[in-house]
Specification:
Length: 287
């Protein structure tokens, strides 16, 4: 009786391919819509990650509206000067801060444990998270650029190569930030402590990476510390897109250093993948 039963089970079982790569991708893509809707339904997440850079751009542009930045003959407005930094900060907030806090809370309230009992695989879950960060990060960048151009008349680049630089810095930056966010989500002990643990770390990085303060004005030792982390390079990459080339002399190397931006960000992408592999689980070990 065992043999016929086994045969019937094999015949009645769904094809193995339906549980393979195509199914994983399909579930992940369908998860993106759910994640995006959930993101915009959370008022605190929308304010502190999506609108926060826009708010700071408005504050700096208005507060320093009478000031000019840059060498004589190549001065630009405050809105133009701070736009690249806000774009880079947006990548960090949308990716690292949003996912680190969100996943920590999902783990704490049991959402991840329940997902572990569904057909959704970790790979599909990650596709949903990464896809949502790409969508929200892109919408945030569009909003920042639109606010700068419409309300403060910031002249946008016209050279295709600058927009190509923007594209690869954005995609690489938001992907690296998202992977690091997933990896750091295991750091908080609970969902309640997630904001208190993650936000101060990222806030310090923003202040030492040339987002709010001119990078060359920082002490050299602090510049060296910031150069270890990706945000400094993402901000520099964005400056190379939206600032005149004459501003490159103010960078530590005297150039935009696109090669180093690519290298350092890729290194942190690998570090993030290792963190995800080592630390991510549906529930905490002590849960």
């Amino acid at each position: 009786m065992t043999a016929p039963l086994t045969a019937r089970s094999a015949v009645g079982a769904p094809p193995a391919a339906s549980f393979g790569l195509s199914r994983t991708v399909r579930l992940g893509i369908s998860r993106i819509g759910f994640e995006v809707r959930s993101y915009f339904r959370q008022g605190d997440s929308v304010f502190f990650t999506f609108l926060f850079p826009v708010l700071f751009l408005l504050i700096f542009a208005v507060a320093f509206s009478s000031a000019s930045f840059g060498p004589p003959g190549a001065e630009i407005s405050a809105a133009n000067y701070y736009l690249p930094g806000m774009l880079a900060a947006g990548l960090l907030l949308s990716g690292t801060q949003n996912l680190a806090i969100d996943i920590a809370m999902e783990r704490s309230d049991g959402s991840l444990k329940r997902l572990g009992g569904t057909p959704l695989s970790p790979a599909s879950y990650f596709i949903g998270k990464l896809g949502s960060v790409l969508v929200t990060g892109f919408l945030q960048a569009v909003l920042l650029i639109a606010v700068a151009a419409i309300f403060f008349r910031v002249a946008l680049p016209t050279e295709p190569e600058r927009w190509f630089t923007f594209a690869w810095v954005f995609v690489l930056g938001v992907t690296t930030s998202a992977i690091l966010g997933i990896g750091l989500s295991g750091l908080p002990r609970s969902g309640r402590s997630a904001s208190a643990v993650i936000i101060p770390i990222l806030l310090v990085l923003q202040f030492i990476s040339g987002v709010y303060i001119q990078f060359s004005a920082l002490p050299s030792w602090l510049q060296n510390v910031a150069s270890v982390f990706p945000l400094k390079w993402l901000a520099q990459g964005m400056r190379s897109v939206f600032l005149p080339d004459s501003f490159a002399v103010a960078e530590p190397g005297g150039t935009w250093q696109h090669g180093l931006t690519l290298l350092v960000t890729l290194i942190w992408l690998v570090v993030g993948l290792i963190l995800v592999r080592v630390t991510f689980r549906w529930i905490r070990k002590d849960g």
